[in-house]
Amino acid sequence: MHNKWLTLLFLYCFAQVLSAQAPPPLKLFLNHKNMKGASFSLMAKDVSNGETLYAYDTERELTPASVMKLVTTATALELLGADFRFPTTLEFDGVLADSVLKGNLYIKGSGDPSLGSSHFASNRSTYTPDKNVFIPQWTDALKTKGIRRISGSVIADESVFDTEGVSLKWVNEDLGSYYGAGCYGLNVFDNRFNLYVNTGAPHTKPEIVSSEPQMPSLRFHNYLTAASIRSDSSYTLGAPFSNDRYLYGIVPANKSGYMLRGDIPDPALFLAQYLDNQLRMEGIKAEGTPTCYRILAEENKWIPGSRKELITTYSPTLRDIVRITNERSHNLYADALLKAVGLGYTPRPGEVISSSGRGIKAVKTYWRQKGLNTSSLWMFDGNGIALADKVSTSFLCDLLVYMATKSEQRDAFIASLPKAGLEGSVANFLKGSSLQGRTVLKSGGVSRVRSYAGYITKGDKRYAVVLIANNFAGTDAGIRKEMEKLLLSLF
Fold this sequence. Notes:
CATH topology of the largest domain: Beta-lactamase
Oligomer: single chain
Radius of gyration: 25 Å
Strand content: 15-25%
CATH class of the largest domain: Alpha Beta
């Protein structure tokens, strides 16, 4: 009889716990017709004491999409510090005599994703590469040094990272897209170009007009069709280092100068060519053909040696780069941060590992050392594009609690998250609700994936909140609306 009462008491207490952690609003959300067959996980913790407020299926490994950027940015802040800056150095070898550099001019990269970025330009509405300050600075440095001619070439040295610019786990439709631009040891102009087309009547093929910056080496295969629609549903497809870009899909009819976007397939080579052209416009001619480390190494022509520094350009602080990464959900920035922290990982003897792989090792090692359970963390990039990326809400929630309570970088991290209903990728989420302005969230979304993670302030309490839905039915807009209802009901 005694054991029976203990069993009943245990079951009663367990039921009370489940009731507290799976309240009616959550049950209503889970019973929605679009959640049939879907996977969902939710966790919310009181930041001040780590106590769980809500929990549902918290160890389930789910695809997080861009919420994975929180793991990358938090780690980068922890390991590199908020005041870290990426350097890009203009160097030369050989000797200078009679205004002639008898050698080569090198652009030495460290993986800076912000060089010439539109997010730090004075005019953020468009790409204005000719007005980016680093080009005049570099040109002036050569003039100050007295260099008027270069007997060798302009060479981009992107060797700090490997040539695996994109994750092997990305799907085909991401390759060549503006959001799926590869990340290399040298990046420039967000590794993106704008392509302008004139469209005619429905069912006709648009005319390609120009690109910005100019991409004369690219060959565009135009399979676009104009249609009576308001916004385009087009794709720019192509492989890294390939000069072929394929344009598919539909675009609005009867538009002049309609803008599409794509990736710069070889940013290091492009930057060498771009600088070579800019120098010629300033009367400084390089006699050799512009090239890069990748090409020279493949041809066994790369010759390491001592160089002299001409000028070094520094990126904005990591604090600012992390803010753009999370607020604008910038995939290139996130991958660059992952690879940058990977430079601190020392491969084991005989270990062959990519730049991204080193970053992933560094991430998991760091958080294990901080006492977090990383068994549910499966990273294949730094930005969440890979559908193979998996993580649990339990891990993400613990990371959020750590960053808010134990990290010396807490202010920079929390400030990087956009205010729901007001900023960035969550400008329309919770807009006009009671949670607007007191909720900061990173959002994530790919096909049949929707996720949110961040902090909600209620009274004098701050809560770390993570919710992820995978494989739901219906539209992305529909599931966003249901998640809004859920959060408003819970908080």
